[in-house]
Amino acid sequence: MPTLAVSRDVLDLIEYVEGETIKDKLIGLVSADLARRLRECDREIGDFELKYRMTFAEFAEAWESDEIPNKWSHQVERDYMIWEGLEAEKRKWLSLLKRIHGGS
After folding, report:
1. Where are the domains of the chain?
2. Is 88 helix (H, G, I), strand (E, B) or coil?
3. Could you give the CA distance from residue 97 to residue 68 in angstroms, rounded to a whole number?
4. How wide is the angle at C-alpha 78 spanned by C-alphas 65 and 86, nearest 5°?
């Protein structure tokens, strides 16, 4: 297992983090950061869901069947790309959270 060297200042600060061992504390910090990132993705995805009044899966299906008005406009195409990226990012954060908490 790799060794991590940290300064005394950082070690002193880690003492304030919840957890019994350094490993528990680090896992807690990483988990909290992943959860924060997931919440941010969910918020941004929610903005698109409100804007288009559908989920991304519904939007992508409507896109493929040419049901999205002005689908080739810069704004709509850009929204599609950003939204698709957010959905992928959300899956990544969820996967990492499951991994850190012993899931597959």
Report:
1. 8-100
2. helix
3. 34
4. 90
Collapse the DSSP code of 79 into the 3-class scheme (helix H, G, I; strand E, B; otherwise coil) and give the result.
Answer: helix
Q: What is the DSSP string of 39-76?
A: HHHHHHHHHHHHHHTS-HHHHHHHHHTT-STTTTSHHH
Model pLDDT for residues 6-47, shown as the tens digit of each residue = 899 999 999 999 999 999 999 999 999 999 999 999 999 999
Q: What letter does residue 5 receive in the DSSP assignment?
A: -
Q: State the Cα–Cα distance between residues 13 and 8, nearest whole angstrom.
A: 9
Q: Residue 38's closest CA among 100, 83, 95? A: 95
Q: Measured between alpha carbons, how far is 74 from 17 in angstroms, rounded to an integer?
A: 46
